[in-house]
Amino acid sequence: MSIFYDSKDHVFHLQSKETSYVIQLLHTGIPAHVYWGRKIRSGPLATILQRTERCSFSPTPFPEDMSLSYDTLAQEYPAYGVGDFRNPAYQIQAPNGTTTSEAIYDKHRIYKGKPTLEGLPATYAEHEDEAETLELELVDAVAGLRIILTYTVFGELNALTRSVRFLNEGTDSLKLLRTLSMSVDFRDSNYDLLHLSGTWAGERNVERRALAPGLQGIESRRGSSSHGQNPFIALLAKGADEDHGDVYGVSLVYSGGFTAQAEVDPYKTTRLSMGVNPFDFSWLLEAGESFQTPEAVLVFSADGIGAMSRTYHKLYRTRLCRGVFRDQTRPVLVNNWEATYFDFNADKIEAIAKAGSELGMELFVLDDGWFGHRDNDRSSLGDWFVDCKKLPEGLEDLAKRVNALDMQFGLWFEPEMISPDSELYRQHPDWCLHVPNRRRTEGRMQLVLDFSRADVCQAIGDQIADVLRSAPISYVKWDMNRNMTEIGSALLPPERQRETAHRYMLGLYSVLERITSEFPNVLFESCSGGGGRFDPGMLYYMPQTWTSDNTDAISRLKIQYGTSIVYPLSSMGSHVSAVPNHQVHRNTSLELRGHVAMSGNFGYELDLTKFREEEKATVKEQVALYKELRSLVQFGEQYRLLSPFEGNETAWMIVAEDKSEAVAVYVRVLAEPNDKLYHLRLKGLDPQSDYEWIEGGGVYGGDHLMYAGLPVPHLQGDFQSVLWRFKKI
Ligand code: DGJ
User: Fold this and answer.
1) Mutate to test the pocket of ligand 1, among 227, 336, 368, 552 (most ligand atoms within 8 A of CB)
2) Are both 402 and 519 inside the same structural domain?
3) Which of 203, 419, 527, 547 is the best mutation target for the ligand 1 pocket, counting ligand atoms within 8 Å of the beta carbon and taking the most?
4) Of 260, 437, 475, 485, which one's alpha carbon is 20 to 30 angstroms from that of 2?
5) Nearest residue CA, atom 1 of ligand 1?
6) What atom in ligand 1 is closest to the CA of residue 530?
7) Whole-prediction pTM value?
8) Centre of ligand 1 from the C-alpha of residue 368, in Å
9) 109 and 230 both lie in a single domain
10) Residues near ligand 1 with C-beta < 6 Å?
11) CA nearest neighbour of 680 among 656, 655, 699, 653
12) Ligand 1 centre and the CA of 27: distance in Å?
């Protein structure tokens, strides 16, 4: 059992293997937040919560208890309007226009397992015993609003999920103005804030800074989770690092605009909250209707950022990703995007696939440009029928030619978009997001289809399904290459226009659910100009994501390191591309590019027909090596050793869950005069076991490799890398 209710003190204790989360119902019915952190045994938990009477500027709603002010109380789901001046978790607008709410305890339910979230992606329990759920129901009787706070503990996985459902039980309609998924009040402000920020081709840089009084945080207003900010935030105790110290992570299972904030109040407490971005959002809740927030996943680690990451990795790999590919190793692929861009024909494609097959690759992916008359990015999105000029014999013929080479065939789509120059747009000019009488702003010469509309979702879903049925397609790359502007829907009434962006996400999720369940044997990879929608929401439908459009191995050090703070290696697409690199024009060796790309779902994205003989030999070895390594890479545990954000060197390793084997990679970016002699200290091995070093021979104790370390060979020149493999003997 993981959730205990002490009916005497009205305390809920949500316990996992190593963590505790404690809620207390005060006598007034308000759920107070008591504790989140390292596991404690049950005992007098009600004594943890401290309250004191503050000055007259902290209002006291209950005169008989002057120490109870919402302004200073640590709460579970704070309201707006009754004396808490910090960020509220929710805000409503009543029919009379006012925005005050106060919701108090009505009832609760504890049960085994984990409920699904209607229309939204979420982590799941495969067996009832893995998880236990608490539903805490609060009621604002004046507004006729029921708020159901749902908490699920994954006992063995050390994770806690939270989400909220709003139910209008009154007779009038209500407006929801703010509906965050979680809020936690920390007793102090002695933390650093960690988040993952970036840009197109430079996603998920690790940012860390000390909390300061006031509001700080991140958000996306782009209608997608975005390249700029990832839906993840963490508080780190002062001094916490990769391997030590308290770390509190929150990750949102959502692919749309979000907010994540830490607010330090005048009393030096910190409120951490996260959810759908309330900016330009509202939701009309008619009598009898309900609204479900996305899920937030809370992970506490007492052993630094690395342990938090490994918890997220395991949870997301095994209890967020679904389908037959969840537990299957992924094929080594070759993608033609950087090889040909839009300029290809069936023979060229077949030639690349043939070269890939000879080198041991298993899947050919036909990227953008196969449909409509798409010779550049100015047209045809929405016209999902084959371009007979480029592929006169059609898709089925091409797929079969690729299959005949013993390669699977994969295909690129960008289903959420429409080009103004397309048959679809000429037929349905109102199918895109737009605002009447305003310009339709283009991004990459394209508009965003209005996925808040069921008819649009149905029609696009039908088109994609038809193509997938038309040929032996084993893999789909689902791309999305711009953010939303003029967010309005032709079908929604004025009072619901601000629901459009969230309804779009619900529509997208419904199409993804439909397509992925209709084609369970297709491997789906999501993409948004690389990693512009690398988030847990997409991983629920598609177990891997194209990590970044930047394929330069040196840039990838930061991108993949930052991504690994939350996401498992099995979710990251990672390819060897040509030099000079197309994004940053850097030259690096094939060896280095291979070493970096092998720490993910490995592939190539260049014209294989142009390889010289010695390059072919290297690639053949790389593919063979990756095949040996891939179950370790895709299902093992990752340990970060050296951060590219802190110096000239980056290193990481992956250890099998049973510690029977490991691989470590070290990269030095720039050569330096008088290099230091360097020992790389490994992590995660069994100190009592001996490991054979596969490449160099020799047997080393796990303790030796972790405490004394591994001598890094003397490397000459810029952009050097080493890969070591170890097997337990
Ligand atoms: C953006 C993707 O990230 C690229 O990999 C490629 O698929 C292009 N779109 C195609 O337009």
Assistant:
1) 368
2) yes
3) 527
4) 260
5) 529
6) 3
7) 0.98
8) 7
9) yes
10) 337, 367-368, 412, 479, 481, 527, 529-530, 546, 549
11) 653
12) 57
Tell me: do 592 and 722 sit in the same domain.
no
Check pLDDT > 70 for residue 708: yes
Residue 4 clears pLDDT 90, i.e. is over it: yes
Residues 6+ away with beta carbon under 8 Å from 194: 206, 207, 208, 233, 234, 235, 236, 247, 305, 565
Tell me what the mean pLDDT of segment 554-569 comes to: 98
Q: Is a pLDDT exceeding 90 seen at residue 676? A: no
Read off the CATH number of the domain in which 696 is found.
2.60.40.1180
Residue 674 has pLDDT above 90, yes or no: no
pLDDT tens figures, 179-221:
999 999 999 999 999 999 999 999 999 999 999 999 999 999 9
Quote the tokens at residue 551: 């394929």
Task: List the structure tokens of 136.
Answer: 């805490």
Please name the residues in contact with 82: beta carbons below 8 A apart, sequence gap of 6 or more.
59, 61, 70, 100, 101, 102
Q: How many residues does the chain have?
A: 729
Assess whether 549 and 695 both reside in one domain: no
Give 141 Cα–ligand 1 centroid separation in angstroms.
51
Nearest-angstrom CA–CA distance, 681 and 663: 13
Q: Are residues 475 and 508 in the same domain?
A: yes
| CA geometry: angle 664, 621, 634, nearest 5 deg | 45
pLDDT at 227 over 80: yes
Which residues have a catalytic role annotated? 479, 549
Please check the confidence at residue 1 and state whether its pLDDT lies above 80.
no
Percent of the chain exceeding pLDDT 90 equals 97
Measured in whole angstroms, the distance separating CA 627 from the mean position of its chain's CA atoms is 26
- 535-546 pLDDT, tens digit per residue, is 999 999 999 999
- Which atom of ligand 1 is nearest the CA belonging to 377? 11
Structural domain boundaries enclosing 210: 3-319
CA of 103 to the centre of ligand 1 (A): 47
Q: Residue 546 domain-assigned? A: yes
Residue 415 structure tokens: 């289903």
